[in-house]
Amino acid sequence: MSENVVIATRESRLALWQAEHVKALLEDRGLAVSLLGMTTKGDQILDRALSKVGGKGLFVKELETALEEGRAQLAVHSLKDVPMELPEGFELAAILEREDPRDALVSNDYASLAELPEGAVVGTSSLRRVVQIKAVRPDIRIEPLRGNLDTRLRKLDEGGYAAIVLAAAGLKRLGLASRIKAVFSVDEMIPCAGQGALGLELRADAHALKAQLAAMSHAPTWLATQAERAVSRAMGGSCSMPLAAHALWSPGVRGQVLRLSAALGHPERHDLPLLKIQLEAAVADEAQARALGQAAADALRAQGAQAYLAAA
Fold first, then answer.
1. Measured between alpha carbons, how far is residue 69 from residues 30, 109, 205 in Å?
2. Which of 99, 233, 257, 268 has its CA 20 to 30 A from that of 287?
3. CA distance 300 to 241
């Protein structure tokens, strides 16, 4: 391919890092690449929770429009922001090897969630994080926190919060790992589907580019995130649903198995218990990964998930 490949990207510092990272990978394969920076509705609406204004799809719609109109050939997304169902004519061509998928506690004064004083204010707009924090520290007061990573850190530094919770991957990618006071283990706080991974989206009819990108995809991350996204898809995939899903590879008797953890909280009644499950299976292809995700969703429904979903 000799033509220039234009990557559509959001203009936050983290999004540009991600786009530049993919640009370098493509250039190593002999392609000419440039970036098309864009501001999405998700970047513009900062005074309301995403669940109230249209969900995470607000971060990708403008980029998909650029693909549709031919102004760009590729969009780079944080996979956790990509809706479970893409519009007709678009697809994920590759998922890159995942960075640290865990959540991180960032604070200027406290080294862990346990150290926070009673009634301390923690910043996050993620319902998934809210229900998991409340499950162990019901006294904590959660306040909304929107904006790009630098904006969130600035709001912490201005004294608005005792601590904030961010994805470890973004902090590490921007060289800000020193801001992390504690990383939550997956057992302490299950990440959201796709957290830490980058998804490369293109038009379904871009066959030549799709072949190039397929060689960049990381198979273990692809299969793990397919299982995670299948849980969310089976549960309705709503941004107003406090759902966590994360898959880890581990050695089994007959080779590698995928261990999938998932949790669902009530979106309003934080005094109700978290519904949690863990399943594992030998996974060799996408169909098996999605079947594992469906089984996890079925197990959550067997615990009473439908009543929680009805309130979302």
1. 25, 49, 13
2. 99
3. 13
Within 10 angstroms of residue 174's Cβ, the number of other Cβ atoms is 16
Phi, psi of 211 (to 5 degrees): -65, -40
pLDDT of residue 296: 98
70 φ/ψ sector (left φ>0, alpha ψ -120 to 50, else beta) = left
3-state SS, residue 91? strand
Cα–Cα nearest to 274, from 244, 233, 249: 244
> DSSP secondary structure string, 162-196?
SEEEEEHHHHHHTT-GGGEEEE--TTTSPPPTTTT
Which residues is 166 bridged to in the sheet? 104
24, burial (CB in 10 Å: exposed 0-12, middle 13-18, buried 19+): exposed
**Cα separation of 154 and 156, whole Å?**
5
Catalytic residues: 81
pLDDT in tens, 102-156: 999 999 999 999 999 999 999 999 999 999 999 999 999 999 998 899 999 999 9
- pLDDT for 237: 74
